[in-house]
What we know:
This protein is mainly α. The protein has helices at 15-22, 40-58, 82-110, 118-139, 155-178, and strands at residues 26-28, 34-36, 115-116. A hairpin with a 5-residue loop joins strand 1 and strand 2 (34-36). The longest helix is centred in the middle third of the chain and has 29 residues, at 82-110. It is globular and about 50 Å long. Residues 1-22 have low confidence and may be disordered.
Amino acid sequence: MSFGFTSTGYGRQCKRIYNVKFGRRFRTKRNGFVEIKITDEERHLIAELIEQLRELVLSTSPEGSVDPSIRRLYPTAYVEDAEQEHKYQRLMRDQLLERRLAHLDVVESTLRDEELSPETLIAWITSINDLRLVLGTHLDVSEDDEPAFRDENDQEQQQRAIYHYLSHLLGELVDVANN
């Protein structure tokens, strides 16, 4: 049985209601810049996560093994050929690391800004996605995982809540970039 509900099934939603209910955090301005409306707590959390990710990626050597939680940041190019894979990682890891660190620096330096340039928005999207990938890998999150937050003192549940927050934030950033 289908009820045929659509996003406009009851008419257009008032923007004021949407902003109160869903707290629209990013809005594209006429000049192409993106207005940011995130709380100080969110900015503080993102700053802490950025610093943790920076420490983690800097602790990985191109010659050594990769921390399992960041393996998705350095994808395998040669699954069947370990020697080729080692050469590839040695060649590409520094470039990937440099770009990643540059994006983290941009986010960190613009965290208190009220608007982002289109170029800065890309750095935010990339960094939030990297944070989400690392945390999701650490937690072994799958597509089927449903958020269930029963015990606020459980560290893994707190990390899962942060993962879901980052997922939502990333979705908002991508939406505003596509508009």
